[in-house]
Amino acid sequence: MTIDFDLEQIRKRFDCTVYFETGLWDPTSEVSSKKALRSGFDKVYCIELREKWIDLGKQVFKDEIESGRYKLISDDSSNMKKHLDDHVKNNKTMFFLDAHVDNNNIHNYKKLCPLIDELDAIKSLPRNDNIILIDDLRIIKMPFPWGEDSYGNINFLQEIVNKILEINPQYKFTTLNGHVEDDVLLAYLE
Asked: How many Å is the Cα radius of gyration of the chain?
């Protein structure tokens, strides 16, 4: 949700043309989709489960949706793989993974924290050089982030790093500022 870094600078540094995020939040606020649309991405995707945010997003991003530059997907991000179209498959994409159930207003979810499923979807792509940003490290570092226990008692952050290294063992890692300092994991290739 909160990006406290220069998205356009990262887009340029890693030459990404597509932005794909999981979790929209309130589109009337300064959400990452707005920042992505102000950056130089050719196409911006967002998958969101909560219908309230989808309905608001259709209003807020009406022009971008009509022009085809913004695709707002109403679905659980555990199903992300089926939404990775040819544009995502064929172009270097920056993924911003920020989907999680953090309130009682969401009931139709598959997992409270679908990060592993999202990374499996990215792993299925023919490209293995995409940029991966994962928000909320302060919570992911804790046992059972957002109450997610379907993966068992694992070190969630280490499991995420391992999944990313399965995509490409050459990935390097650093952190960026998000809601708090060093709250966003950046996986990249030089």
From this structure: 15
Tell me how far the alpha carbon of residue 22 is from its chain's centroid.
4
Number of domains in the chain: 1
Q: Considering the domain boundaries, does residue 2 fall inside one?
A: no
Question: What would the two tokens of residue 128 be?
Answer: 């293995």
Q: What is the rounded end-to-end Cα distance, in angstroms, of the chain?
A: 26
CATH code: domain of residue 78: 3.40.50.150
The Cβ-side half-sphere exposure at 29, using a 13 Å CA radius, reads 9
Local structure of 136: helix, strand or coil: coil
The residue range of the domain holding 38 is 7-188
- pLDDT, one tens digit per residue, over 60-95 is 999 999 999 999 999 999 999 999 999 999 999 999
Does 1 reside within a domain?
no
The string of pLDDT tens digits covering residues 152-169 is: 888 889 999 999 999 999
Please give the single-letter amino acid code of residue 183. Answer: D
| Furthest-apart CA atoms within the chain: distance in Å | 45
